[in-house]
Design goal:
about 260 residues, mainly beta, globular
Length: about 260
């Protein structure tokens, strides 16, 4: 299969690629359990993010991805082997400095740092089944390289507020830091059961200093998934090559306040 253009995405075989500045966002539509990667000089910046573990694809299965602008949509219908069908909707955007907190952060930043250093991806994970008594227990995993991680919950004013380490049950977002870069992972509060962070223990992951060392699992809420009912779950990743914590938090807050796209 040659290279095909799908809006901002380019697809070659099962790999979809979107170029952003000197980075590339890469999604393997044939292996949704690998999530997406942010690459720079063809090297992964963070690891494998937002991996949908429950979707398996048969070797000869025909896939038909399509896009709208910077959105990449992939459907995996239910079958006897795949009892829960899914649609993955990857929405790419650059974060603009549109809020007061962003403008304040921009004033304090170095002259060569602006809002275009922030990239965001929203994952809309839709589940549907034609079978009775189906309990998918969906989860999304990120394997990340990070030197520190902090958790955030919703404050009284609706913004994100850092939580003590012993209040994991209130966490809806995690901020990972590594070598001056920052990555924020978040989900719609009603979609999250819990987050879990553990060290990566496989010998393969320990072979390089650049390999992921954090295994982050977001357990999702799929209650009321009945035959013929579509359950949509939304997750979010935002990242920057700088100390851009306030911009990342502001972007995540806007995500959590947003409505699900009419096209999803």
């Amino acid at each position: 299969m040659g290279q095909k253009n799908y809006g901002a995405w380019k697809l070659e075989r099962t790999t979809a690629r979107l170029n952003w500045n000197d980075h590339a966002v890469v999604v393997d539509v044939g292996h949704p359990n690998r999530g997406f990667s942010l690459l720079k000089d063809d090297e992964s910046v963070w690891g494998d993010l937002l991996q949908v573990a429950q979707i398996s694809v048969a070797r000869n299965e025909t896939l038909d991805p399509y896009s709208r602008g910077t959105d990449l949509i992939l459907r995996y219908p239910s079958s006897e082997k795949r009892r829960v069908g899914a649609e993955l909707y990857w929405r790419w955007a650059e974060c603009e400095s549109t809020s007061e907190v962003d403008e304040n952060e921009a004033e304090e930043a170095d002259d060569d740092i602006d809002a275009t250093t922030i990239g965001t991806i929203e994952l809309i994970y839709s589940l549907e089944t034609e079978f009775l008594d189906t309990e998918p227990d969906p989860e999304v995993v990120s394997q990340v390289q990070g030197s520190s991680i902090r958790q955030f919950g919703i404050a009284a004013n609706g913004s994100l507020q850092e939580l003590p380490t012993d209040e994991t049950e209130r966490a809806i977002a995690l901020l990972v830091e590594q070598d001056g870069r920052q990555l924020l992972l978040a989900a719609i509060p009603s979609d999250v059961k819990s987050w879990e962070v553990s060290p990566v223990t496989s010998s393969a992951a320990a072979t390089s200093a650049q390999s992921p060392n954090l295994h982050i699992t977001c357990y999702l809420n799929s209650d009321f998934l009945e035959k013929g009912v579509i359950r949509r779950l939304r997750l979010f990743a935002a990242f920057g090559d700088c100390d851009c914590e306030q911009r990342l938090l502001a972007a995540a807050t806007r995500f959590m306040e947003s409505e699900i796209p009419l096209t999803a």
